[in-house]
Amino acid sequence: MSEEVQETESTEVEDVVETSSSLADVDDINTLKKMIKTLRSENAASRQKRNTVEGELTEYRKWKESQMSELEKANSEKEELTKKYRKTLVEKLAIEYGVDEDFREFIVGDSEDEMKERAKKLGSRKGSDNSDSSEKIKARLLGGNRGTAVGKIMDGSNQSAGSNSEASWFKELYDNK
Predict the structure, then answer these.
(1) How many Å apart are CA 73 and CA 53, to the nearest integer?
(2) What is the mean pLDDT of residues 131-154?
């Protein structure tokens, strides 16, 4: 853009120089002052034009940035709504298929159908577990009352060594210290 302005100025200066060479014989100072005044006004006009174009360019860039921020705002709002939808869908599927709260984080998938399949599997797994309730499992992991060994069920009966991996894990953890 500045090359065009310089090119235009140089052609105008060449025209004036050609005129001045024909007027070089004239030593009239008033003619020279008029030529200088003409050159200055042309230069001022080109500066004004350049400043106007630069101002318009700055306004366009600001508008473009404002549009981008609107787009970014819309994208972030879309992401929030998508997260809320997926969370609500997980809750709905967990309730529908009877998935425990502890296993809801495993209801994942790219589509609603995939999430339904995972919820069905997790819900059916609940029915195939032993008849231990979640309270008994929590009691086994926490060790129950004071003085109760880790791995004992609340009613005090021992489990077989191979059936409870939590008990063996805790035993290994605390025995190796």
Answers:
(1) 30
(2) 51
pTM over 0.85: no
* Two structure tokens written together for 135: 């309270």
For residue 114, how far is the Cα from the chain centroid? 25
pLDDT tens for 103-116 read: 888 999 889 999 99
Provide the residue ranges of all domains of the chain, joining segments of one domain with +: 2-129, 133-177
* Contact between residue 82 and residue 111 where contact means Cβ atoms under 8 Å apart: no
**What is the SS3 assignment for the chain?**
CHHHHHHHHHHHHHHHHHHHHHCCCCCCHHHHHHHHHHHHHHHHHHHHHHHHHHHHHHHHHHHHHHHHHHHHHHHHHHHHHHHHHHHHHHHHHHHHHCCCHHHHHHCCCCCHHHHHHHHHHHHHHHHHCCCCCHHHHHHHHHCCCCCCCCCCCCCCCCCCCCCCHHHHHHHHHHHCC
Average of pLDDT values for 69-84?
Answer: 90
pLDDT at 52: 94
